[in-house]
Amino acid sequence: MAERETPWTQEDVANRFENAAVTARRLPSAKVQGYFNAWPTIVRCQWELLARDERQVCRFPPTPKDVEQMLEVMTWVEWLEVEQRHLVWMRAKRYGWRDICTRFGMCRTTAWQNWQKSMQLVAQRLNDSRKKKG
After folding, report:
1. 70: buried, middle or exposed (CB in 10 Å: 19+, 13-18, 0-12)?
2. What residue segments make up the domains of the chain, in order of their start?
3. Packed helices 108-133 and 82-92: angle between N→C axes, nearest 10 degrees
4. Along the 134 residues of the chain, how does pLDDT read in single tens digits?
């Protein structure tokens, strides 16, 4: 990655986590290799296509820069405890605080403080590593 000139803030770190979650969502789905279907494709009528339950998802693939930044963010996760990882990732995926509080069994203020503490911890580690290089 290109060297950053300004110190990392909590907002910068939170934005990078959110961008990483968006990039992960845009990646193509993993398919099991080695299996195939020999059956012919079923041709459906228009009214049958409208009645189906599954939706066809069309995502634009992420750019190589987005993937590179996502992989960098994934290394930051190693600095956090397991519960902090889950909290940060749920918030990056834009889960509401109510869902997060239910998942962790804590009030909104405590969840928010833990999230802030996690963001500060990552920002501090990034700033410390920047000082060591410079």
Report:
1. buried
2. 10-26+43-133
3. 100
4. 556 778 999 999 999 999 999 999 998 877 777 777 788 888 888 888 777 777 666 678 899 999 999 999 999 999 999 999 999 999 999 999 999 999 999 999 999 999 999 999 999 999 998 887 76
Distance CA 88, CA 114 (A): 9
pTM: 0.79
